[in-house]
Task: inverse folding
């Protein structure tokens, strides 16, 4: 009996606020909801989810490889949409070949309304559609990376200090400087206690003669 298998993917975490917002919109829960509204039942045994970049190749995806090992001829592999499958045109097409021709399973992209059938040469119009979808997904990934890089560069040029924002108070700062000078606590422990970044604590430590990290 043919089985349904589901693959979910979200991008790796980022410190950039705009990109983080996009990632929240790509959560596993959103993908599960799309698939469940389409009438599918997702359980632990038939669902594979991982947090990994969309440009990552098949043999570098642990959960994707695990899913491949369980597939039987005629099964269905179902994705919420092409962008959750891959954001790299070349590796995406290669993975489709692995699924459809090597594993001989059917593939479905629910939101895109695309189905590929096991061992069957793809209709040229369907091939064109999915090619354009994957190219568009890769373009979006490249635009996000380009804009993020330029945004961070501009902030650095403006003198903005990048990284995690601190919630430290003046009391925390005073406490940190006291701990640095009066105790043998490590920089990491002082950072944990005072909520001040490790890099800042380490810099202060270097300024204090005779302090041992």
Result:
């Amino acid at each position: 009996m043919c089985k349904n298998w589901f693959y979910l993917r979200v991008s790796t975490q980022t410190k950039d606020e705009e990109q983080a917002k996009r990632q929240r919109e790509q959560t596993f829960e959103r993908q599960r909801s799309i698939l469940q509204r389409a009438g599918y039942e997702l359980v632990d045994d038939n669902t594979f989810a991982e947090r990994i970049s969309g440009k990552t190749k098949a043999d570098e995806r642990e959960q994707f490889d695990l899913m491949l090992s369980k597939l039987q001829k005629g099964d269905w592999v179902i994705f919420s949409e092409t962008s959750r499958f891959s954001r790299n045109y070349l590796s995406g097409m290669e993975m489709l070949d692995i699924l459809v021709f090597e594993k001989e399973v059917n593939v479905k992209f629910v939101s895109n309304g695309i189905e590929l059938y096991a061992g069957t040469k793809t209709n040229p119009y369907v091939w064109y559609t999915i090619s354009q979808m994957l190219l568009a997904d890769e373009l979006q990934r490249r635009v996000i990376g380009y804009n993020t890089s330029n945004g961070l560069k501009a902030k650095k040029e403006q003198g903005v200090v990048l990284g995690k924002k601190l919630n430290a108070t003046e009391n925390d700062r005073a406490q940190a400087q006291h701990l640095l000078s009066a105790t043998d606590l490590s920089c990491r422990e002082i950072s944990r206690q005072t909520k001040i970044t490790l890099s800042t604590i380490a810099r202060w430590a270097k300024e204090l003669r005779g302090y041992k990290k």
About this structure: The domain at 4-154 is CATH 3.40.50.1390 (Rossmann fold). DSSP finds nine helices and five strands in the chain. The two ends are 62 Å apart (CA to CA). The chain has two domains: 4-154, 170-207.
